TrEMBL record:
This is Leucyl aminopeptidase family protein. Belongs to the peptidase M17 family. Residues 14-133 form the M17 aminopeptidase N-terminal domain. The keyword Cell wall biogenesis/degradation does not apply. Residues 150-450 form the Cytosol aminopeptidase domain. The keyword NAD does not apply. Keywords: Aminopeptidase, Hydrolase, Manganese, Protease. GO terms for molecular function: aminopeptidase activity.
Length: 460
């Protein structure tokens, strides 16, 4: 499915977006008949409310959508797009006293709300189309939505059709669309080329583990993105219960999100030297599966005691981040569906992140507001460093501390990233219930915040 606006030259019906405070003025502009109709139908301007405006012969002359109060909009991002489902087919143009930021949010929300996952059954998208509002960068909005749609499609596809090989095919296809170069190391070659932890996690599956690299752009600051690509996670020998396994097709959500972000960057032609690294594995059970208490020697040379084979994401990211750090970059970012502790801390809607660079943090927070992509900073708390040191090896992949699981996982990754401007996202990658512009299922988190924050982070 391709997000798009209606043609700017199309005949479009007016969609009046109004808050409760502006309802009286709107009635005056629309005329006595329309005002009486809105009053008779009980329209109050609540967020997501919709009324079609009838003409004298029964034709639809336009529509009025409730923008709600500022408090309601803070509580429910993109809430106004709930009204879109009731609009008849055709082109629509926004009318109303909206700020540039509000027009951008409505336009982006409209595009994102049009997503349907149609791989396994026919999915009919909305037939109403929006003319891009004045002052909104249509190309940028479409690029954001297209990257998000790629991320959602990848996460929503079940593991039978999205194993390491299929994820590689999508990775290569993405690179091909934008003229990027790709390199892939697979199977036992991972041992020979220095990715022992990626190999150890994925070796039990008949679908060979691999690590993939994409390079694009020849000028500008260097940006490296690393995404966790566990295409399915049974937990390994520390097997998950069925309730914990049901959503594990989404455990490659970090890979899907960095791929979506990479698409946005390349489609918009940002002046960066982009490098994307994705380790892709299945964490399953067989006779040669990774065992609890095994000790692995990582690419960086650090030894890791495996105290839980279900804490495998940080192992494959360790090798990937070490590889990333071997080449200088201006910013290093990792994204992963890494810990349940992050969900306990902030729930499914927020993308918690870790970063110690004040300039990057400020730019990311501003980007989150601009991109309507909420994030929340958690600390690299140095006092917990000792928790990830088991004594028998340099690091412990699953310390029995019982607290701060997302923080200790982030500290583990920081040992491999070894970068002064490192950002780590511990995302969920899934919307558990239908929400405005976020259908139930796979979702990107942090990508739009990063895209909008990159100018401030990299001086673009």
């Amino acid at each position: 499915m391709t997000p798009a606006f209606a043609d700017a030259g199309a005949e479009a019906l007016p969609l009046h977006i109004v808050s409760p405070e502006g309802l009286a003025d709107l009635g005056g502009r629309l005329g006595a008949g329309a005002a009486a109709w809105l009053a008779a139908t009980g329209f109050k301007g609540d967020l997501g409310e919709l009324r079609l405006l009838p003409g004298p012969e029964g034709a639809v002359l336009g529509a009025v959508a409730g923008f709600g109060t500022a408090s309601a909009r803070r509580r429910r991002r993109f809430g106004v797009v709930k009204a879109l489902a009731g609009l008849p087919a055709g082109a629509w143009r926004i009318e109303g006293e909206l700020t540039p930021a509000e027009r951008t949010e409505v336009a982006l929300g409209w595009l994102l709300a049009g997503y349907r996952f149609g791989r396994y059954r026919k999915a009919k998208g909305p037939e109403a189309r929006l003319v891009c509002p004045d002052g909104v960068d249509a190309e940028r909005m479409i690029a954001m939505a297209r990257g998000e749609f790629l991320t959602r499609d990848l996460i929503n596809t079940p593991a039978q059709d999205m194993g390491p090989g299929e994820l590689e095919a999508e990775f290569v296809a993405l690179a091909g669309r934008h003229g990027a170069a790709v390199a892939v190391v697979r199977g036992d070659d991972l041992l020979e080329q220095g990715f022992p932890m990626v190999h150890a996690v994925g070796r039990a599956s008949p679908r060979a583990p691999r690590i993939m690299e994409m390079r694009w752009g020849s000028e500008g600051p260097a940006l490296t993105l690393v995404g966790k690509g566990v295409c399915f996670d049974t937990g390994g020998l520390n097997l998950k219960p069925s309730s914990g396994m049901n959503l594990m097709k989404k455990d490659m959500g970090g890979a899907a999100t960095v791929m979506g972000l990479a698409q946005m960057i390349m489609e918009l032609g940002l002046p960066v030297r982009l490098r994307v690294i994705v380790p892709a594995v299945e964490n399953v059970v067989s006779g040669n599966a990774l065992k609890p208490k095994d000790i692995l020697t990582s690419r960086k040379g650090l030894t890791v005691e495996v105290n839980d084979t279900d804490a495998e994401g940080r192992l494959i990211l360790g090798d990937a981040l070490a590889w990333a750090a071997e080449e200088p970059s201006d910013l290093l970012v990792s994204m992963a569906t890494l810990t349940g502790a992050a969900r306990v801390a902030v729930g499914p809607d927020l993308a918690p992140y870790y970063c110690d660079d004040a300039g990057v943090v400020a730019a990311l927070e501003a980007g989150a507001a601009e991109g309507c992509d909420p994030v929340w900073r958690l600390p690299f708390h140095d006092a917990y460093e000792s928790v990830i040191e088991p004594g028998i090896a340099d690091l412990d992949n699953a310390p029995g501390f019982g607290f701060a699981g997302s923080i200790t996982a982030a500290l583990f990754l920081r040992r491999f990233a070894d970068h002064p401007r490192y950002v780590h996202f511990d995302i969920y990658g899934h919307t558990p219930t239908e929400a405005p512009a976020r259908p139930k299922g796979g979702v990107g988190q942090g990508a739009r915040a990063m895209l909008c924050g990159l100018p401030g982070m990299l001086g673009l």
